Amino acid sequence: MLCRSNDELELLISQARAFAGQGEVAQYIPALAVAHKHELSVALYYPDGKGFMAGDTEENFTLQSISKVLSLALALIDQGEECVFTRVGKEPTGDPFNSIAKLETNKPSKPLNPMINAGALAVTHMIKGNTAGERFERLLDFIRCLTGNETITYNKEIAKSEFETAHLNRALVYFMKEHGVIDEDVEELMDLYTKQCAIEMNCIDLARVGCVLAMDGCDPDTGKQLLPIDVARICKTFMVTCGMYNASGEFAINVGIPAKSGVSGGIMGAVPKKCGIGICGPSLDEKGNSIAGIKLLEMMAKRYSLSMF
Ligand SMILES: NC(=O)CC[C@H](N)C(=O)O
């Protein structure tokens, strides 16, 4: 049985919202620290183009790490699978998303997967364009196409706030530049990456992107193939193995949906052949995942039998 009622979702939201108090909003990007802890929104998008939603659905939030799935899709389209995986690996790390540890121990030195910060920076490096500005516009256009929303843009204040404080990400880029994974100007790549992370949308837009992935790259409204099937497959596989950072194993057991989270509290779910899910709840657990968002997904997975396993 699938959910076809806003009221049912509203009920689940009210139960999940209670868990928000147990977490904290992200502090390390100053502009994210002002988010409201108890906000929670959810949307479902079905392959027949219908959507359902509940909670604070009007609120926009930045994609943060969720953008890593979309930059990966574009880099795969731009460069092809073989080329992309010469610079980034396919294995989960078991470490926090911003860890530098395995960059040094992995030989040859390349980030272990595209869902950790180091891997995502290497992926963004591979997006094609003559200038950093052109590469960002291409990514934005691609995301507008996946959401079906021409007004999607990025939050300048949040991008600037991260750009000014991203010391650890800069360290990752310098390390990778030293080892030949990246060969562009560090500040240019940081500018592009922080803008990418600050791309904003609401939970309905996000659910629609999840639905495109769930439907193997097919647009739920027009039937048009927006992504090659293999690209959608690779993205969903990484969402299962590394999408919830170093909590991906537990999440696969408790929820069983390909999903990607971000430190803004967003989570995108892609339930194969069934629906896309967009969630935002800024209160995070210690691994950086939305605490109420995960509870909500656990409840939904049980109630609607969404686990793919
Ligand atoms: N986990 C995340 O959402 C991290 C994204 C954030 N912009 C960073 O690079 O630190």
Automatic annotation (TrEMBL):
It catalyses: L-glutamine + H2O = L-glutamate + NH4(+). It comes from the Bacteria. Keywords: Acetylation, Hydrolase. Substrate binds at residues 65, 117, 162, 169, 193, 245, 263. Its EC number is 3.5.1.2. It is an enzyme of class 3 (hydrolase). GO terms for molecular function: glutaminase activity. Gene3D superfamilies: 1.10.1500.10, DD-peptidase/beta-lactamase superfamily. GO terms for biological process: glutamate biosynthetic process; L-glutamine catabolic process. The keyword Hydrolase applies. The keyword Metal-binding does not apply. It holds the Pfam family Glutaminase. Belongs to the glutaminase family. HAMAP family: Glutaminase (MF_00313). Homotetramer. This is Glutaminase. It comes from Shouchella clausii (Alkalihalobacillus clausii).
